[in-house]
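Figure 3 (text version): structure tokens given as input.
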């Protein structure tokens, strides 16, 4: 019952997160944003949901019918499966000693569904978009997981509970600010967010891997992307700022920061994205991690 309530809460928060994004982007661009449906546009997410799920689903003759119907739902299902292993009020629904390893497995599986979404539609634009997205996600998963392993070494446990206990005296953020910046950049690349949204390229790929998906299919892919953003913001707070007093304030600031970055920076070039990961982030993490660990132990 608790799990169902939390899943429903996450899905509702995703709906209002999209409204928050549209409001923040509109004020950055000096305009109003959604303000017609309901009081100050508060019912806009529900209006969009009803519109999307009422649309007819048109499947092309060349599409792989079964995979096309299954993969958007499975991508959202994987995002929902991450919820029980994340702490809520520092008590995970599945309280296991190795829930970080479980998070590794589930987050890695998301790559396969993006590849299947692009491949099953049998469109060259969606296939190229999925290949670009998969290459980007796999590249940044290396630095993404290495930073988590560094935090695991600091807390000496694969459990989120023990990680929270390790930060009672001092947050891991202090002394590891550069690692946190690399972590935040990796989170943006993992979720295909600006300025790393290379699955979409209006000039060459239109909407990327989801170009052939409309209505409810698109809504499910959209929900999976935004729920991943919320889960990674929650995970970032747990890894670097695990304190009950400031937890939700920092979590809200991180979710807003991910939206703010979209309105502030233009899209990278794809080759610069790969250079940033393989030639800058990875050597830096391998070099900084031992030094950061020694400095953090000295601070303790």
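Below: residues designed for each position.
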């Amino acid at each position: 019952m608790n799990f169902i309530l939390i899943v429903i809460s996450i899905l509702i928060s995703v709906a209002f997160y999209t409204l928050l994004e549209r409001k923040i982007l509109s004020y950055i661009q000096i305009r109003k944003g959604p303000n017609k449906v309901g009081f100050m546009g508060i019912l806009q997410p529900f209006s969009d949901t009803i519109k999307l799920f009422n649309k007819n689903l048109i499947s092309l003759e060349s599409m792989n019918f079964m995979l096309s119907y299954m993969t958007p739902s499975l991508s959202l299902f994987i995002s929902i499966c991450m919820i029980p292993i994340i702490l809520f009020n520092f008590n995970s629904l599945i309280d296991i000693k190795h829930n970080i390893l479980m998070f590794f497995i589930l987050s890695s599986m998301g790559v396969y569904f993006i590849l299947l979404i692009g491949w099953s539609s049998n469109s060259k634009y969606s296939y190229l978009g999925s290949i670009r997205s998969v290459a980007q996600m796999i590249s940044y998963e290396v630095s993404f997981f290495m930073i988590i392993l560094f935090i695991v070494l600091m807390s000496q446990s694969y459990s989120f509970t023990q990680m929270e206990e390790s930060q009672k005296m001092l947050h891991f953020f202090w002394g590891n600010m550069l690692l946190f910046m690399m972590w935040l950049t990796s989170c943006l690349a993992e979720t295909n967010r600006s300025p790393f949204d290379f699955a979409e390229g209006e000039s060459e790929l239109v909407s990327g891997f989801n170009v052939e998906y409309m209505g409810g299919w698109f809504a499910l892919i959209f929900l999976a992307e935004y729920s991943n953003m919320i889960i990674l913001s929650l995970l970032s707070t747990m890894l670097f700022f695990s304190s009950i007093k400031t937890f939700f304030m920092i979590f809200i600031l991180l979710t807003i920061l991910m939206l703010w970055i979209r309105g502030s920076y233009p899209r990278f070039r794809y080759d610069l994205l790969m250079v940033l990961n393989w030639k800058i982030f990875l050597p830096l993490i391998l070099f900084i991690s031992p030094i950061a660990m020694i400095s953090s132990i000295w601070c303790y």
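Residues 124-155 form the longest helix (32 residues).
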